[in-house]
Every structure is written in structure tokens, then in C-alpha cells.
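Below sits the subject:
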Amino acid sequence: MSAVNISATLEHSIEVKSPLSVPQTRRSIQALWLVGLSAAVSWGVLSAVTLLWSNAEVGFSDWAYTTEFGCAAAVVALVALLQAMTPLIGIPVTKRVKALGPWLVALGAGLTVWEIVTAKLASLPTPFFAPPQSLIEVFTTDAAKLLDSTGNSLVLLSAGIVCGAWTGFLVGVWIGWSRQASYWIHPVLRVLGPIPTTALLPVSFFFFPSSWSTAVFLIALGTGFPVAVLTWSGIASVNKNFYDVARTMGASQWFLILRVAVPAALPQVFVGLFMGLGAAFSTLVAAEMLGVKSGLGWYLTWAQGWAAYPNMYGALIVMALLFSGLISLLFLVRDRVLRWQKGVVKW
């Protein structure tokens, strides 16, 4: 074998047997969950800013729970880093975690900016604007009052929504099925329905014996109007051929209402419930601010009166979680009830 052949063979052997460092490095980088790595960096920066940058003096000793907040951010950064590296050992990142990744990056960046402009630079006036760690103090020291207010708001909200939803549904079915009911009731709904429920607070306090019953009535009114209108719309828009087919098979009047009209109108009913929940939330807060002695709206007024703005922000966060949770629950019920229309309902 010539020297040229021996040299070519050795070069080919080296290329085959040498570790593929460059391709392996590229595959390792591609295997990393880069969004998770960005989340780890975002929360790591938040932890470093919180722990290593001294808080600005704002007229009192210091913001409580600063160290705890920085350590918590470091834990989140570590968890995100470990999650980002799991593909290297053959554990794929789940779809749910991937979906949460961009939000995790944005949340870490947003908290970092919030921390800098409040606790570190004091660019925003205190006590109107407090840093993120002040919320930890609210949820640890005032948890009992917040839980009590949340429970009372849930009871009040549930009573109003149940009464309003059932009344609105029955009225909507009635005016959608009966021409006489539509003639008399529909104009009343068109005149009184658009009036904001909060505008009826002074009149309602006169007719009802307590502020709690007044709040229930107003929440029911705000919920019932969109449910009634959209239920009526759903009943009125049912294809007449459905009724003709059912009548040829001997269906009674009640069968036509309960087994033909109402199921066909259910998508519209859930749209009305969705709109009614939004009206119920705003009415709840307004009613609790003016009348009741406990609830999230009352808590907001109390916190504002004492200039406890971190408590006010904590109550707003609880409200957001509570109301979004109720909306998500409504979606779950809708998907369960309308599973026979899967792929048709898109909202």
C-alpha cells in the first residue's frame, strides 16, 4: 500500500472515530429548552436585583420580606434551569410547561422592573406604589381578613348569580316561545335592561330591608338581563323544521320546549351567562363598597381609607384570581354540557 493510500486511510479513520464535538455541541444546544433557560435568567436577575441592591430609603426602616422574596425568585430560577436542562438526559418538556414558558419569562422581567422602580429607585411615590415583597406581607399578616372577605363575596355572588341566571333563563324561554310574553316583556327588557345596575343602588336600598338583600337583587339583575335576552334569541332562532319533525313523531308541547328548543339554544344561553358574570362582578364590588360590612369590595374601601395600598393591591389580585377562576369553571361546565356540539362552539 502506498504512502498516499495509508495517509488517506488514517485521515478517514480519524474522522470516523474522533468524537463529533461540533455536531454534538449543536445537538446539545438544540436539545436545551431555550425558553426555560430564558426564564431562569429572568428570575435569576430578579433575585440578584432584590438581594444585592439595597432598598432606597422611603421614610421608614425598610420593606419587609425583601430577603424572602429574593430567595423565592432564586428558587424559581433554579427550577426553571433544571427544567430547561431535562431534555439533555432524555426527559422531554411537556406541552403544558412549554405553554407556560413565555409567561414565566415575562413575569420575571415584569417583577424585576417593578422591584427596581419601587424598592430600589423609589421612582414611584409611596405608599401609593409598593414593591412586590409588600404583597407577601399582606398575604401573611392579613390572610384571615382576606379569606373572610373572599368567602363572604363568594356567598353573595353565588346567591345573586343563581337567582339571576335561573330567572333570566326562564324569562328568556318564555318570551322566546310565547308571542304574548314576547309582546309584553320584551319591550320592558329593552328599556330597563341597559340601565347600569349600580345606578339603581339608591332605589334598591329603599325597597329592600338590608344591604345584603339589595346586593343580591342587583347582582341577579345584572346577570339575568343578558341571560334572558340571549336565551330568547336562541329559542327564537331554532330551525322550525326541528319542531315539524318532532310533531310528526307525536311530541307534546313540553317535549318541544324541553327537548328541542332548550338544547338548541344552550350555546346562546352560555354566552349570556358569560356576559352576565362580568356584570355580576362589577355590581358585586360596587354594592360591597357602599353597603355590606364584609367582602372584597368592602376590603378595598377599608384599605383605601387607611392608606394601606399594598392591602388594596392584594385584594385586587384575589379578585382577579377569583373571577377568572369562575369564568374557567363556566367554560368547563359548558364543555361538559355541550360535548355533543364539540367542534361547533368556538368561544
